[in-house]
Amino acid sequence: MAPDPRKKTTIYDLSQLSGASPSTVSAVLNGSWRKRRIKESTAEEIQRLAEEHQYSTNRQASGLRRSRSGLIGLLLPIYDFHHFSSIAQSFELRARRRGLCPIVVSTHRDPAEERASAEHLISYSIDALFVCGAADPDGVHEVCEAAGVRHINLDLSGTRAPSVVSDNYDGGRVLTEALIDAFPADAPLTVDELMLIGGREDEATRARVRAFHDVRSTRFGRSDADAVDLTGYSARNAKLAFERHYQARGRLPRAVFINSAINFEGFLRFLTDHRGDDYSGHVIGCFDYVPFASFLSFPVIMIRQDAESMVATAFDILDRPSEAPVVHLIPPQLVPPRTALTGPLDEIHSPGDDLRDRSL
Amino acid sequence: MAPDPRKKTTIYDLSQLSGASPSTVSAVLNGSWRKRRIKESTAEEIQRLAEEHQYSTNRQASGLRRSRSGLIGLLLPIYDFHHFSSIAQSFELRARRRGLCPIVVSTHRDPAEERASAEHLISYSIDALFVCGAADPDGVHEVCEAAGVRHINLDLSGTRAPSVVSDNYDGGRVLTEALIDAFPADAPLTVDELMLIGGREDEATRARVRAFHDVRSTRFGRSDADAVDLTGYSARNAKLAFERHYQARGRLPRAVFINSAINFEGFLRFLTDHRGDDYSGHVIGCFDYVPFASFLSFPVIMIRQDAESMVATAFDILDRPSEAPVVHLIPPQLVPPRTALTGPLDEIHSPGDDLRDRSL
DNA sequence: TTATGTTGCGCAATCGATGGTGCAGGGACT
DNA sequence: AGTCCCTGCACCATCGATTGCGCAACATAA
């Protein structure tokens, strides 16, 4: 009567109990029973027994047989970083909504680790792999290709598989225009008061810089290369850059397009060393979402990459028959000044528990 | 010659190629070959072939046979939240260091989802489960117990399994004392200038409040209940609380112990509505790590929960034979004012790429 | 020469679920 | 009665790796 303690019940147990064959039990429990013309009453009985004995299918066995696992992988450079953890969050949600089990692994932008992790995941017969921000997406591609595993690049495009990335050009354009438009008609921005700081020679930054120059040229008639200062994705270097430009002209440019959260942190470090200064009349743009930026005394306009849409698009691609290595561009969202701190989630929570009200 | 495209090589393939039996191949490849007295030269040959044909073991098959999977699960309330994503990060790192494959699933503090997710993970024959911040750890315990899966509570203790949690009393004590000591001898803090805002009736908050009162009594001779204002974990409610106390006395108490990052966000919202005010002479404590807090114009003392140690301890427990449901307390760390923004990681990165230099 | 090890490895069952195929029984129709 | 079809299900090989057991060949000891 009492189910064996510590021993999971199998279809064979249920077969015994119900008098049906294991294959019938299997069919009933995996939903293929109508196709196999099992009588409704038989199915009901087996389902009842399954419930009663807390049956749950052994996915290793099932996966072995079907050579699929219900697992889906995500390779991530690093976890603990807002943009990436947003992606992980969306990934997890959507994977689970499809009944898939998410495995997230961080590979530190190391090509060897990327390949090794991909291989490791593949040895679990994962059904698909998302490759986010990889240093070497095409290396991972090879591994997946060899194993016949569907895979999609996220956030950084590869040449061999479909990719979903932020539309950096569009984001850069929107942010640059927003910066210029933030200034009143009676004290308009001039061309050399507008700088871009941060980033390095990568795909994303190049697109943003291109947009920056394009808008700048369109709006001011010209744009020169030294308006852009690529510091790398480093808080310290960004801080030094701010320091430099500050020294050079005795104050900060009135409008700065900061290329990432990391670089924005450099800016904050700069600010802490210049507490006394007056920043009214300044407007900062940040190509990343940093909620606390809304607390600053001057306006900060942000671009929030739409992790949710990116992941959604990637899943959509999985649904379609496998496609050529197209790049899908996802427009990022503009976050107007002072709006980051109040989330739409504020309203829907019981006062006692609003963990979902994400703070940082 | 060329390995079949798209078809993974198995021990049977290698058996054919090497002339050895599948069991010998298996033994060689899983390392048990010495125990089975396989000749060294045979082993070498098989390993060579395995390499050549890019063999990798099918973990579903292996797992099925051994009824273990090499997977390890983590149940998390939510991802996108600094404390939890730190835990996820540490978990991922340590799991992989042990050759385990991490599966992180967020369950939104919903008891039913917690159980369901645990069952789902168990159906993959996970080797162990960490249960972090669960609403109903003992419910999850039952599920695990029934399946014979080792499990450990993290961050919130259960009564039925070993738990690893922050030492909230100690953290509360340290933070309260640091707040008091932050004031100079010539303008010392008085008892009713010290408040605690945020949190609700839960295990963690209770311990912190107890410490708060204890220190307050010790240092000031008395402590009254209305120095504590539990607002729930809500930014909005915390903001309202600050507003209330501000109105009541015409200014903020000079020292406030804020109970969490979420509540701290409420404080920031309060500040944005009171930009003009002078906060010199104020000191804020926050029982959570919020890097950007270091940017504020007044000192913010933070308590950083030691996710890394918590996870490490949890893994250590796994190594030991299963133990009684003991609670392990991990002392959190004090983050002195203005120190959050400069990480030790600043130094070790190439300028071009310091993603690991976590910003927020 | 016979008893006793030791070395090196193969045999075959097993883990649990799946799905192609086949087959018995019953009804309908010629 | 013979043919055909449909219903409802069982049989059994299979996925790939693991492991208890056994056995041949050779060495050593008595």
Provide a descriptive summary of the structure in words.
2 copies of one chain form a homodimer. Chain A is an alpha/beta fold. The first copy, chain A, has 3 domains: 11-57, no CATH class; 67-166 and 307-331, Response regulator (Rossmann fold, 3-Layer(aba) Sandwich), CATH 3.40.50.2300; 168-304, Response regulator (Rossmann fold, 3-Layer(aba) Sandwich), CATH 3.40.50.2300. Helices cover 41% and strands 14% of the residues of chain A. Chain A contains 12 helices and 12 strands. Chain A has helices at residues 11-18, 22-30, 40-52, 59-66, 82-97, 111-122, 137-147, 168-181, 203-220, 235-249, 261-272, 307-319, and strands at 71-76, 101-106, 128-132, 150-154, 163-166, 194-197, 228-229, 255-258, 283-286, 300-304, 327-330, 333-335. In chain A, strands 2-1-3-4-5-11 form a 6-stranded parallel sheet, sandwiched between helices. In chain A, strands 7-6-8-9-10-12 form a 6-stranded mixed sheet, with helices on both faces. In chain A, strand 8, helix 11 and strand 9 (283-286) form a beta-alpha-beta unit. Chain A is elongated and about 90 Å long. The relative contact order of chain A is 0.10. Residues 344-360 of chain A have low confidence and may be disordered. Chains A and B meet through helix 4, helix 5, strand 2, helix 6 and helix 10 of A and helix 4, helix 5, strand 2, helix 6 and helix 10 of B. Chain A binds a DNA duplex (30 and 30 nucleotides) through helix 2 and helix 4.
